Amino acid sequence: MPAPLDEAALDHFRAQLVAELRNAIAESAVELRHAIGASGAQLREELRQDIAASAANLGREFRHAIAATAAELRQDIAASAAELRREFRHAIAASAVEMRQDVAASAAGLRQELRQDIAASAVELRENIAASAVELRQDIAASALELRQDVAATAAELRADMRASAEETRRHFDVVAEDLKGKIQLVAEGVLGVDQKLDRFREEVGVEFARVDRRLLRLEVRAFGTDQP
Asked: How far apart are CA 132 and CA 95, in angstroms?
């Protein structure tokens, strides 16, 4: 039969085994640290190289993408500007056509209104001239009738006086003749005044017609000037 193990020997063996295990673990840890440090340095270098290469590639790709995007943007901006110019030209042309139509319509309406105003003014002026002429003729007729009545009354009185007293008529013939001359002179002056009134009326009528002709000419010139573009 084997001899029984001593507890002290077992404890010594356990202690020795634990110490060896610790030394082995410490050596393994040191080696592991060295290996990890070397691997970490290499890994960091590789990562730096990969990052640098990736950054360079990314920069090139980013620059190419920016250049392509800028070219597309320039093309889009050029196309939009061309379309906007076309739309702006069409809008300007449409606005010009509408403005010409509005101006033509306004000019036509203005010409029609001017013609109506001119026609109304001419009619009113003719009516006023005709009324003034009628009044003047009535005044002339009334004055001539009154003059004829005065002359007839004076002649009747003279005839009665001559029949009643021929001698008195002869004595006062000169006085009566002078009185008759004065009255005839008055009649002649009245007729002359009527002629002067007629002459002044003709001149005033001519002046008024000249003014109307000038006004019509100015209105036609304005109307034709408004018709021109």
From this structure: 54
